[in-house]
Amino acid sequence: MTVRLAKYLAHGGVASRRAAEDLVRAGRVTVGGKVVTDPARDVDAGSGVAVDGRAIQGAEARVVFAVHKPAGVVSTAKDTHGRPTVVGLVPDAPGRLYPVGRLDADTTGLILLANDGELANRLTHPRFEVPKTYRAQVSGGPVGEQALRALRRGVQLDDGPTAPAEARLLRSGVLELTIHEGRKGQVRRMLEAVGHPVQRLQRTGFGPLTLGRLAEGSHRRLTEAEVERLRGAAL
Which of 104, 106, 158, 159 does the annotation list as catalytic? Predict the structure, then answer.
């Protein structure tokens, strides 16, 4: 069966489909030994697809890991400054993994690693509005109803207004916030905009998954049922 080249690369665990399209357009992909720059080119397992000279054998077994990211760990597969990465927290992974979205280096909590580029793209694309839940310890005095109402309405940021969030006060100085977008540093910026800068931030939920009792720095492979629930969240 033939599929488009970008999809073939994503299913082969190379990158998300969007990133795979960039690889193709950059001239880093060959088919049958010849450079191809059209991500829509039809290929199959016998086409001889390679990236930077490395043969891609097609679809790998789909795996997704939940990781409890500590502070100071970056949400990339590699880091040019030698900082620890979330991928390094899963040394026993079967094949190449890459993060599903990002967490700031100082933010802890639940992040997913996968070799399924199509699923990763759907989970992070704003169109699918997959919810992400955070627990934030904030400064700025008692959190009043006015701040909560502002978060629930949406907050004006320098890159435009946010969508309404779900916000509730868990205890003095600690809020739970659920957003359906994925802008850079969004939760921190939203809380600062309502007068409550973040001191500590942890992601506790991603779609239907929760951090639960997963210890900081630990990981676990998701069950097939959990992966299917993730797929269902991005429909």
Answer: 104
